[in-house]
Amino acid sequence: MIRLGLQIPNFTYPGVADANLFERIAAVATTAESAGFDSVWVMDHFYQIPSVGPRTDPMLEAYTLLGAIAARTSRVRLGTMVTGVTYRNPALLAKIVTTLDVISSGRAILGIGAAWNEDEHNGYGFAFPPVAERMARLEDALRICRAMFTEPVSTVQGTHHHTREALNVPRPVQPGGIPILVGGGGELRTLRLVARYADACNLFGDVQTIRHKLGVLRRHCEEVGRDPSSITTTRLGGLVIAPSAREAERIASEAAARRGTDLDEYRRYAVVGDPDAVLEQARAYLDAGLDGLIFNMPNAHELEPVRLAGATLSALYP
Q1: Which helix (H) or strand (E) holds 259?
Q2: Of the given ranges (126-130, 192-196, 256-260, 277-281), which has the lowest mean pLDDT?
Q3: CA atoms lying within 13 Å on the CB side of residue 11
Protein backbone atom coordinates (compact mmCIF):
# COMPACT_ATOMS: atom_id res chain seq x y z
CA MET A 1 0.00 0.00 0.00
CA ILE A 2 2.83 2.42 0.85
CA ARG A 3 6.41 2.07 -0.27
CA LEU A 4 7.84 5.56 -0.63
CA GLY A 5 6.02 8.59 0.76
CA LEU A 6 6.73 12.31 0.99
CA GLN A 7 5.30 14.25 3.92
CA ILE A 8 4.93 18.03 3.53
CA PRO A 9 4.90 19.47 7.08
CA ASN A 10 6.20 22.95 6.42
CA PHE A 11 4.62 25.85 4.53
CA THR A 12 7.21 28.53 5.25
CA TYR A 13 9.02 29.08 1.95
CA PRO A 14 11.39 32.03 1.48
CA GLY A 15 10.07 34.52 -1.05
CA VAL A 16 6.69 32.78 -1.48
CA ALA A 17 3.70 34.94 -0.57
CA ASP A 18 0.54 33.43 0.92
CA ALA A 19 -1.30 33.99 -2.35
CA ASN A 20 1.25 31.81 -4.14
CA LEU A 21 1.69 29.24 -1.39
CA PHE A 22 -0.54 26.53 -2.81
CA GLU A 23 1.12 26.66 -6.21
CA ARG A 24 4.46 25.84 -4.58
CA ILE A 25 2.90 23.04 -2.50
CA ALA A 26 1.29 21.63 -5.64
CA ALA A 27 4.65 21.77 -7.37
CA VAL A 28 6.21 19.77 -4.53
CA ALA A 29 3.45 17.15 -4.77
CA THR A 30 3.58 16.81 -8.56
CA THR A 31 7.38 16.67 -8.48
CA ALA A 32 7.19 13.88 -5.90
CA GLU A 33 4.72 11.98 -8.07
CA SER A 34 6.86 12.25 -11.19
CA ALA A 35 10.02 11.36 -9.22
CA GLY A 36 8.66 8.01 -8.03
CA PHE A 37 7.02 8.66 -4.66
CA ASP A 38 3.79 6.70 -4.30
CA SER A 39 2.15 8.81 -1.59
CA VAL A 40 1.98 12.40 -0.37
CA TRP A 41 1.09 13.30 3.22
CA VAL A 42 0.35 16.44 5.21
CA MET A 43 0.09 16.98 8.96
CA ASP A 44 -3.23 17.50 10.69
CA HIS A 45 -2.33 20.50 12.83
CA PHE A 46 -3.55 24.07 13.22
CA TYR A 47 -0.28 25.51 14.59
CA GLN A 48 3.17 24.61 13.37
CA ILE A 49 4.70 21.99 15.67
CA PRO A 50 7.88 22.73 17.67
CA SER A 51 10.04 20.16 15.87
CA VAL A 52 9.45 21.93 12.54
CA GLY A 53 9.27 25.63 13.36
CA PRO A 54 7.68 28.40 15.45
CA ARG A 55 4.02 27.87 16.33
CA THR A 56 3.22 31.10 14.44
CA ASP A 57 4.43 29.70 11.10
CA PRO A 58 1.76 29.09 8.43
CA MET A 59 -0.33 25.91 8.73
CA LEU A 60 -3.06 24.89 6.29
CA GLU A 61 -6.10 22.73 7.09
CA ALA A 62 -5.22 19.20 6.08
CA TYR A 63 -8.23 17.88 4.18
CA THR A 64 -8.89 21.08 2.25
CA LEU A 65 -5.27 20.93 1.13
CA LEU A 66 -5.40 17.23 0.23
CA GLY A 67 -8.49 17.80 -1.90
CA ALA A 68 -6.65 20.50 -3.83
CA ILE A 69 -3.56 18.30 -4.23
CA ALA A 70 -5.82 15.50 -5.50
CA ALA A 71 -6.90 17.76 -8.35
CA ARG A 72 -3.28 18.36 -9.38
CA THR A 73 -2.02 14.75 -9.15
CA SER A 74 -3.12 11.48 -10.73
CA ARG A 75 -1.23 8.59 -9.13
CA VAL A 76 0.00 9.26 -5.60
CA ARG A 77 -2.04 8.18 -2.61
CA LEU A 78 -3.06 10.98 -0.26
CA GLY A 79 -3.44 11.12 3.50
CA THR A 80 -2.70 12.83 6.77
CA MET A 81 0.23 11.82 8.92
CA VAL A 82 -1.89 11.73 11.02
CA THR A 83 -5.40 13.02 11.83
CA GLY A 84 -5.97 13.85 15.49
CA VAL A 85 -8.98 11.87 16.67
CA THR A 86 -10.18 14.74 18.87
CA TYR A 87 -10.55 17.25 16.02
CA ARG A 88 -13.55 15.77 14.17
CA ASN A 89 -16.54 13.63 14.91
CA PRO A 90 -15.55 10.17 13.58
CA ALA A 91 -18.56 9.84 11.28
CA LEU A 92 -17.85 13.26 9.80
CA LEU A 93 -14.21 12.24 9.40
CA ALA A 94 -15.30 9.13 7.49
CA LYS A 95 -17.39 11.35 5.22
CA ILE A 96 -14.49 13.75 4.66
CA VAL A 97 -12.04 10.99 3.77
CA THR A 98 -14.62 9.31 1.52
CA THR A 99 -15.04 12.62 -0.30
CA LEU A 100 -11.26 12.76 -0.76
CA ASP A 101 -11.38 9.22 -2.15
CA VAL A 102 -14.03 10.20 -4.68
CA ILE A 103 -12.21 13.40 -5.67
CA SER A 104 -8.94 11.50 -6.15
CA SER A 105 -10.50 8.51 -7.97
CA GLY A 106 -9.62 6.11 -5.18
CA ARG A 107 -6.35 7.38 -3.71
CA ALA A 108 -7.29 8.31 -0.12
CA ILE A 109 -5.75 6.81 3.01
CA LEU A 110 -7.11 7.56 6.48
CA GLY A 111 -4.15 8.24 8.75
CA ILE A 112 -5.30 8.63 12.34
CA GLY A 113 -3.89 8.84 15.86
CA ALA A 114 -4.82 9.79 19.42
CA ALA A 115 -3.70 13.47 19.10
CA TRP A 116 -1.10 15.11 21.33
CA ASN A 117 -0.82 18.87 20.80
CA GLU A 118 -2.52 20.36 23.85
CA ASP A 119 -1.59 23.90 22.80
CA GLU A 120 -3.75 23.90 19.68
CA HIS A 121 -6.56 22.09 21.50
CA ASN A 122 -6.66 24.94 23.99
CA GLY A 123 -6.43 27.58 21.29
CA TYR A 124 -9.25 26.14 19.18
CA GLY A 125 -11.45 25.14 22.08
CA PHE A 126 -11.19 21.37 21.62
CA ALA A 127 -11.34 19.24 24.74
CA PHE A 128 -8.04 17.52 25.48
CA PRO A 129 -8.98 14.51 27.61
CA PRO A 130 -6.48 12.22 29.37
CA VAL A 131 -4.64 9.71 27.20
CA ALA A 132 -6.85 6.79 28.24
CA GLU A 133 -9.93 8.60 26.96
CA ARG A 134 -8.18 9.67 23.76
CA MET A 135 -7.29 6.04 23.11
CA ALA A 136 -10.90 5.00 23.70
CA ARG A 137 -12.02 7.67 21.25
CA LEU A 138 -9.45 6.37 18.77
CA GLU A 139 -10.92 2.87 19.02
CA ASP A 140 -14.41 4.30 18.49
CA ALA A 141 -13.20 6.17 15.42
CA LEU A 142 -11.52 3.09 13.97
CA ARG A 143 -14.70 1.06 14.34
CA ILE A 144 -16.95 3.81 12.95
CA CYS A 145 -14.73 4.68 10.00
CA ARG A 146 -14.26 1.04 9.04
CA ALA A 147 -18.02 0.49 9.14
CA MET A 148 -18.78 3.59 7.10
CA PHE A 149 -16.12 2.65 4.53
CA THR A 150 -17.44 -0.89 4.08
CA GLU A 151 -21.15 -1.03 4.96
CA PRO A 152 -24.04 0.64 3.08
CA VAL A 153 -25.66 1.54 6.41
CA SER A 154 -23.67 1.47 9.65
CA THR A 155 -24.62 1.36 13.29
CA VAL A 156 -21.79 1.41 15.84
CA GLN A 157 -22.11 1.95 19.57
CA GLY A 158 -18.77 3.09 20.94
CA THR A 159 -17.62 4.32 24.30
CA HIS A 160 -17.76 8.02 23.37
CA HIS A 161 -19.09 8.06 19.78
CA HIS A 162 -21.80 6.23 17.92
CA THR A 163 -23.60 6.03 14.59
CA ARG A 164 -27.18 4.95 14.01
CA GLU A 165 -28.03 3.74 10.50
CA ALA A 166 -25.46 6.17 9.12
CA LEU A 167 -25.31 6.61 5.35
CA ASN A 168 -22.11 7.35 3.46
CA VAL A 169 -23.07 8.04 -0.15
CA PRO A 170 -21.30 8.14 -2.53
CA ARG A 171 -19.36 5.11 -1.41
CA PRO A 172 -15.55 4.98 -1.34
CA VAL A 173 -14.09 4.28 -4.76
CA GLN A 174 -11.52 1.78 -3.48
CA PRO A 175 -12.79 -1.81 -3.42
CA GLY A 176 -13.00 -3.00 0.16
CA GLY A 177 -13.01 0.54 1.54
CA ILE A 178 -10.39 3.16 2.28
CA PRO A 179 -7.22 1.84 3.98
CA ILE A 180 -6.69 2.94 7.59
CA LEU A 181 -3.24 3.74 8.96
CA VAL A 182 -2.71 4.25 12.69
CA GLY A 183 0.20 6.47 13.70
CA GLY A 184 2.23 5.85 16.84
CA GLY A 185 4.23 3.12 18.50
CA GLY A 186 2.70 2.79 21.96
CA GLU A 187 3.28 -0.82 22.87
CA LEU A 188 0.37 -1.45 25.25
CA ARG A 189 -2.48 0.32 23.47
CA THR A 190 -1.62 1.79 20.07
CA LEU A 191 -0.05 -1.29 18.53
CA ARG A 192 -2.85 -3.42 19.97
CA LEU A 193 -5.34 -1.23 18.10
CA VAL A 194 -3.24 -1.61 14.95
CA ALA A 195 -3.42 -5.39 15.25
CA ARG A 196 -7.18 -5.32 15.72
CA TYR A 197 -8.30 -2.64 13.28
CA ALA A 198 -5.67 -1.16 10.97
CA ASP A 199 -4.40 -1.84 7.47
CA ALA A 200 -1.15 0.00 8.17
CA CYS A 201 0.84 1.64 10.93
CA ASN A 202 3.54 4.28 11.07
CA LEU A 203 6.41 4.13 13.55
CA PHE A 204 9.26 6.37 14.62
CA GLY A 205 12.80 5.65 15.78
CA ASP A 206 16.16 4.24 14.78
CA VAL A 207 16.70 0.81 13.27
CA GLN A 208 16.92 -0.95 16.63
CA THR A 209 13.74 0.74 17.88
CA ILE A 210 11.87 -0.15 14.70
CA ARG A 211 12.90 -3.78 14.96
CA HIS A 212 11.64 -3.87 18.55
CA LYS A 213 8.31 -2.21 17.74
CA LEU A 214 7.67 -4.64 14.89
CA GLY A 215 8.24 -7.50 17.31
CA VAL A 216 5.66 -6.04 19.68
CA LEU A 217 3.19 -5.66 16.81
CA ARG A 218 3.71 -9.30 15.82
CA ARG A 219 2.88 -10.41 19.35
CA HIS A 220 -0.32 -8.36 19.37
CA CYS A 221 -1.25 -9.91 16.02
CA GLU A 222 -0.71 -13.40 17.43
CA GLU A 223 -3.03 -12.58 20.34
CA VAL A 224 -5.90 -11.59 18.03
CA GLY A 225 -5.23 -14.16 15.32
CA ARG A 226 -4.08 -11.64 12.72
CA ASP A 227 -1.44 -12.27 10.06
CA PRO A 228 1.11 -9.47 10.65
CA SER A 229 2.02 -9.47 6.96
CA SER A 230 -1.48 -8.09 6.28
CA ILE A 231 -0.43 -4.81 7.96
CA THR A 232 1.75 -2.39 5.99
CA THR A 233 4.46 -0.99 8.27
CA THR A 234 6.18 2.35 7.65
CA ARG A 235 8.51 4.81 9.38
CA LEU A 236 8.34 8.61 9.19
CA GLY A 237 11.62 10.49 9.41
CA GLY A 238 13.64 13.28 7.89
CA LEU A 239 15.67 13.13 4.70
CA VAL A 240 18.52 15.31 3.55
CA ILE A 241 20.01 14.27 0.23
CA ALA A 242 22.48 16.18 -1.93
CA PRO A 243 24.94 15.35 -4.71
CA SER A 244 27.81 15.46 -2.18
CA ALA A 245 28.12 14.41 1.43
CA ARG A 246 29.50 17.84 2.32
CA GLU A 247 26.45 19.62 0.91
CA ALA A 248 24.11 17.22 2.71
CA GLU A 249 25.91 17.86 6.00
CA ARG A 250 25.51 21.60 5.53
CA ILE A 251 21.78 21.35 4.86
CA ALA A 252 21.31 18.95 7.76
CA SER A 253 23.19 21.25 10.13
CA GLU A 254 20.89 24.12 9.20
CA ALA A 255 17.83 21.91 9.63
CA ALA A 256 19.04 20.76 13.04
CA ALA A 257 19.57 24.34 14.15
CA ARG A 258 15.99 25.23 13.16
CA ARG A 259 14.79 22.32 15.28
CA GLY A 260 16.89 23.52 18.20
CA THR A 261 19.14 20.48 18.24
CA ASP A 262 22.58 19.41 17.05
CA LEU A 263 23.55 17.41 13.99
CA ASP A 264 24.13 14.16 15.89
CA GLU A 265 20.63 14.30 17.37
CA TYR A 266 19.13 15.20 13.99
CA ARG A 267 20.83 12.18 12.42
CA ARG A 268 18.93 9.91 14.81
CA TYR A 269 15.77 11.20 13.17
CA ALA A 270 16.90 11.77 9.60
CA VAL A 271 18.66 9.96 6.79
CA VAL A 272 21.49 12.25 5.64
CA GLY A 273 24.06 11.98 2.86
CA ASP A 274 24.82 11.68 -0.82
CA PRO A 275 22.73 9.23 -2.87
CA ASP A 276 24.84 6.18 -2.03
CA ALA A 277 24.78 6.92 1.70
CA VAL A 278 21.06 7.67 1.68
CA LEU A 279 20.31 4.42 -0.11
CA GLU A 280 22.37 2.44 2.39
CA GLN A 281 20.71 4.06 5.42
CA ALA A 282 17.23 3.66 3.99
CA ARG A 283 17.81 0.02 3.12
CA ALA A 284 18.74 -0.69 6.74
CA TYR A 285 15.20 0.26 7.80
CA LEU A 286 13.68 -2.09 5.25
CA ASP A 287 16.04 -4.83 6.39
CA ALA A 288 14.67 -4.30 9.92
CA GLY A 289 11.28 -5.41 8.62
CA LEU A 290 9.48 -2.29 7.37
CA ASP A 291 7.45 -2.28 4.17
CA GLY A 292 7.74 1.41 3.41
CA LEU A 293 9.44 4.68 4.26
CA ILE A 294 7.90 8.15 4.53
CA PHE A 295 10.18 11.17 4.56
CA ASN A 296 9.93 14.89 5.05
CA MET A 297 12.62 17.11 3.60
CA PRO A 298 13.66 20.52 4.95
CA ASN A 299 14.25 21.84 1.42
CA ALA A 300 11.48 20.06 -0.51
CA HIS A 301 10.16 23.43 -1.75
CA GLU A 302 13.32 23.75 -3.88
CA LEU A 303 12.01 20.73 -5.88
CA GLU A 304 15.38 19.44 -7.11
CA PRO A 305 16.05 17.59 -3.82
CA VAL A 306 12.68 15.84 -4.25
CA ARG A 307 13.68 14.72 -7.74
CA LEU A 308 17.02 13.42 -6.47
CA ALA A 309 15.36 11.62 -3.56
CA GLY A 310 12.84 9.90 -5.80
CA ALA A 311 15.46 8.84 -8.31
CA THR A 312 17.66 7.47 -5.53
CA LEU A 313 15.11 5.74 -3.31
CA SER A 314 13.13 4.17 -6.15
CA ALA A 315 16.02 1.70 -6.34
CA LEU A 316 14.75 0.20 -3.06
CA TYR A 317 11.74 -1.15 -4.97
CA PRO A 318 12.97 -2.44 -8.32
Answers
A1: none
A2: 256-260
A3: 25
